[in-house]
Amino acid sequence: MMCDMETGICGEAGSDEMEMIDFNQPAKEINLYYVTDPICSHCWAIEPELRRFVEQYGHYFNMHTVMGGLLEKWHDGPIDPGNGIYKPADVAGHWREVGEHSRMPIDGSLMVDNPVQSSYPPSRVFKIIQKNHGDTLASAYLRRTREELFVFNQNISERAEMVGIVNALGLDGEAIVNEAEQPIGQQLLNEDFAQARSLGATGFPSIIMINAENKGLKIVGGRPLESYVDGLKKVLDVDTLQPKPQPALSSLLEQERLLFSKELEVMYDVEQSNVASYVEKELSPNPYQAKEILGETYFTTTEPKGE
């Protein structure tokens, strides 16, 4: 006798007492390449969506962060004519627009007063950290670098600033920046540039997902979370995915150090007006600080550099 799982009706099991089943299905391995740059404002803007995507769906793919080389140096010609960028001061207005639209705040006045001359130096530091200490610390460096540049208006291409950011990660900033200034730093960066070209990345951010059959898709620019999830379904050739639960806010804030309201809204499906009460409920009695900058609220467990 048996009960049918679909109909709920119980009856005779039928003539097939035993049935061989092959559970040895080949694993579908996805490689996700995130082509980015430390001074890419649109990459800063997608941090809320990208973080949730990686947190909940990262078990489906291997993530590789690739430096794309947004700005080698300023010159007399146009850098980004599509956005009206010919000189450093032109960046400030564009960045502010991105920050206001995404609600990932950007000051931008640095590009008028003390502009970043090249994104290569912090990119080389990223590659050295990645080589010597792994992807997790390299990603933390990239996040801190963007906070310092976009929010706290620090020139992340200056040597002292790079050393300070690396030191704050618990690493030897002087040694790492020294190594990044050696030929190996540019060699590693050139390898990333070559990989970005081979992936067909022509803009930032670009996310390329490739499956075991070497087929995939490319998503360019800022997109909602659903676009990344739908893309992953396509390369996996499945209808549904099983996301992991969102991480506890206490552990996420401890890991990230600083999170903006927009990041919590996206991660936890909370309305902006309810973020403060949500944080109080989730973090109490853990110590935290709620502050405001450029019209946006952020939460931290430590005193962020730059204040």
3D architecture notes:
It is a single chain. This protein is of the alpha+beta class and about 300 residues long. The protein has 2 domains: about 30-200, Glutaredoxin, CATH 3.40.30.10; about 250-300, Orthogonal Bundle (Arc Repressor Mutant, subunit A). Helix content is about 45%, strand content about 15%. The protein is built from 13 helices and 9 strands. It has helices spanning about 40-45, 45-55, 90-100, 110-115, 120-135, 135-150, 160-170, 175-180, 185-200, 225-235, 250-255, 260-270, 275-285, and strands at about 1-5, 10, 30-35, 60-65, 205-210, 215-220, 260, 290-295, 295-300. Strands 4-3-5-6 form a 4-stranded mixed sheet, with helices on both faces. A 3-stranded antiparallel sheet has the order 7-9-8. Strands 1-2 form a two-stranded antiparallel sheet. A hairpin with a 5-residue loop joins strand 5 and strand 6. The model is unreliable at about 5-10 (pLDDT under 50).
CATH topology heading of the largest domain:
Glutaredoxin
C-alpha Rg (nearest Å): 23 Å
Strand order of the largest sheet: 4-3-5-6
Number of strands: 9
Please state the average pLDDT score.
90
Total of domains: 2
